[in-house]
Amino acid sequence: MEFVQILGGLLNPTGGYLHVKKPRSFVFQNPDHQKQRVAIAGDLADACKVLLLDELTSFLDENDQVGVIRAVKSCLASSIGTTALWVTCRLEELEYADGAVYMEDGRVVLQADDNST
């Protein structure tokens, strides 16, 4: 969670260097997936370049999880130059990712792109 907060500008890093294109937006988990969709759509309408998505599907059942993931993919497909960083503990969501990074204790342990996932 701290990593995403640093990326979103909510926390300052204690070391190293980080650059994230602006404008950037942060969408937190919410048990009402309709509110999540509205938040994501609003961020994209504001010409967001980096969309930080933190555990969006954590409160949702399987059908709603897939619905939120598809909504994000659809929004991104129609938004030129926007990157989404999706933080999740659900490995099954990797099916929808263009790439993935696995981190432990703030360090990258494994990285894969869409050609190797």
UniProtKB/TrEMBL annotation:
Gene3D superfamilies assigned to the protein according to its UniProt record, in alphabetical order: P-loop containing nucleotide triphosphate hydrolases
SUPFAM superfamilies xrefs: P-loop containing nucleoside triphosphate hydrolases
Chain segments annotated as transmembrane: none
Recorded GO CC terms: chloroplast envelope
Protein name: ABC transporter I family member 10
Protein species of origin: Sesamum angolense
